Amino acid sequence: MLKKSLSALALIGAAAIVLTGCSANAGSGSSASPEAVKDPTELTLALVPSQDQSGLVDTAAPLTDFLTKELGITVHGVVSKDYQAAVEAMGAGQAQIGFLPSLQLWQASDKYGAKTVLQTERNGNISYPAQFMTNNPDKYCTDKPVERDGKLFCNGADALKGPAGLDSIKKIKGAKVAVLGPGSPAGYIYPMLALKEAGLNIDTDINKLPVTANDASVLAVYNGDAEVGFSFWDARDIVKKDTPDVGQKVVVFALSQEIPNDGVTLSKDLSPKLQDKIAKALADYSNTEAGSKVLQSIYSITKLAPADPKSLDVVARAAKTLGLQ
């Protein structure tokens, strides 16, 4: 089922995911009262990985199998690199469960009334900073880099919690910078927000090198293709196996303000009862050894925790400032 759904997803644009039999009330709108909602007989789960998606098709299957058993409703999975396609699928009634980054959690809620029920927990945290990395610490570090867990940091970034070192980002003006797409919170949104708030023109003051994933941003800095790169903390670990000296050659010199973790959002077209059931099933799954292993394979998720709706307020501000609504 997952491979079939993935093939279908590849055929559509960002406007919607065209899948048959996903919802008995697709596109029904929000006028019906909760008591009148008729839940679908099948569900579609949209996954949007933060790294390269190769290998995720097979590893996600146990998750959809578990949900199918727990809910008594067949759950299909789709894996896409396109964040916006997943949001639009939620709005079109073609996906009912979304594993989405923070911007898309807010967009799904703001545009389509979706409910964020869970946020991913990594090492006990439901937020993380974006990191600014460089291969030229002499330019960006105002103090001597310090080592932590085999990796170098400066300007207080070794505290591992943002914000830190943002006074130094003005020096990025004129530099070549590895940048992810506009849908990436850590690879674009929050670093760009920080640059804009520091007085830089994000269209003309930096030379952008487009990259497709966080690990590619790290490697662009490591290989000297870019002087600075943006990524989630700490994406250097992803490439450490193949480049064991990455923590010494790529220095983190600043951290953005904390970013709400990605999480789980549910369509407004699901009844409150089914929403609660899905949220509980996913949270329980993340607390099992097998479930935690699968979620770590998909999303590096340690655990799924109850969502903090207020944490998305900062996402709204970033989206409005950068015109990403």
TrEMBL record:
Keyword Signal set for record: yes
Coiled coil: none
InterPro entries: PhnD
Leader sequence residues: 1-26
Record's keyword terms, sorted: Signal
GO cellular component: ATP-binding cassette (ABC) transporter complex
GO biological process entries: transmembrane transport
Keyword Signal: yes
Gene3D superfamilies: Periplasmic binding protein-like II
NCBIfam families per UniProt: 3A0109s03R (TIGR01098)
PANTHER family xref list: PHOSPHONATES-BINDING PERIPLASMIC PROTEIN
UniProt record similarity statement: Belongs to the phosphate/phosphite/phosphonate binding protein family.
Protein name: Phosphate/phosphite/phosphonate ABC transporter substrate-binding protein
The organism's taxonomic lineage, starting at the top: Bacteria, Bacillati, Actinomycetota, Actinomycetes, Micrococcales
Name of the gene encoding the protein in the UniProt record: phnD
